[in-house]
């Protein structure tokens, strides 16, 4: 929001006014010695703040890294970031020039620093990693169906790639400068080394997070099983993946990535990401296919929020109804849009909080 300030002139105007040497009122005789004060221009330079001062309205502000402390000559309080009142020594004229007391300068210095630390501690999604399951020599699940009178083979690796690419494209379109990576962009099977390299290639700062979304399709011996679901990945689940033996056959390909994340604690962020993706899918799928909900072995409470990780199962290839949907390009596009919406909702939420676990 904007401050109360009337249109102001820039620092050049201050310097011009100072150069004119207009005499100021000075210190009245008999008054107590004023607190130590320095010319506002020098104090601003010390603070590393940009000074804007309008002699006509006797108002101005100091600005540093997007934070603004506004004042009116001779008036306390100041107004910080347009909303917060602060009882600081007022700016006073001495010898015709605005001055700032040492106490006010120190208070402003700590306020600017505090604001900058708050900003620095906010989490930021540095990258989104989309992992279309399987690929190349590994088709994942597959099933043959007669759809519209024609025999069709539905293959997990293909639809996972179609969905993954569209999610990637939409994310890039929304956030051109954000890093959006794919574990594969074609029909190839990324080796363990390839996948680990992708995960490790990200240079992360202290508050950087990476979102990992793996796209799969289900298969079941029960031909009636159908619907979509989202798994959030907790550490126990991940730990079992060290050798992949605990994974369903169709999902062994995610073991390397999950292993690369072993050092990360499970987080509520994974649950929240999973929930938003599920909601996003529910919005586009509606009653075309059942919502099977969130899946995990257990719910956990959390510490580390750096890699929210989910696995999306878009439907059952083994079910004729789901297979007919998954054979349609339009349906895959809708699914991708739903997942995309969930990711965007999550990122907006994640980046607009103070820290990893605040509500
Ligand atoms: Zn799979």
Mean pLDDT: 79
Low-confidence segments: 1-30, 235-242, 261-266, 297-305, 354-359
Biggest sheet, open or closed, and with what strands and sense? 6 strands, mixed
Overall 3D shape: elongated
The side-by-side strand order for the widest beta sheet comes to: 12-9-13-16-14-15
CATH architecture of the largest domain: 3-Layer(aba) Sandwich
Beta-strand content:
15-25%
Percent helix: 25-40%
Which CATH class of the largest domain is shown? Alpha Beta
Measure the end-to-end span: 24 Å
Tally of structural domains: 2
Write down the secondary-structure element order: HEHEEEEEEEHEEEHEHEEHHHEEHH
The small molecules bound here are: zinc ion
Write the layout of secondary structure elements.
Elements (H helix, E strand, L loop, with lengths): L10 H10 L16 E3 H8 L2 E5 L4 E6 L2 E6 L5 E3 L3 E3 L5 E3 L2 E5 H19 L3 E9 L9 E6 L2 E6 H19 L4 E4 L9 H9 L7 E11 L9 E5 L2 H5 L15 H6 L7 H18 L5 E5 L13 E8 L3 H7 L2 H23 L8
Parallel strand pairs: 9-12, 9-13, 13-16, 14-15
Antiparallel strand pairs: 1-8, 2-3, 3-4, 4-5, 5-6, 7-8, 10-11, 14-16
Bound molecules: zinc ion.
Zinc ion (ZN) binds next to loops.
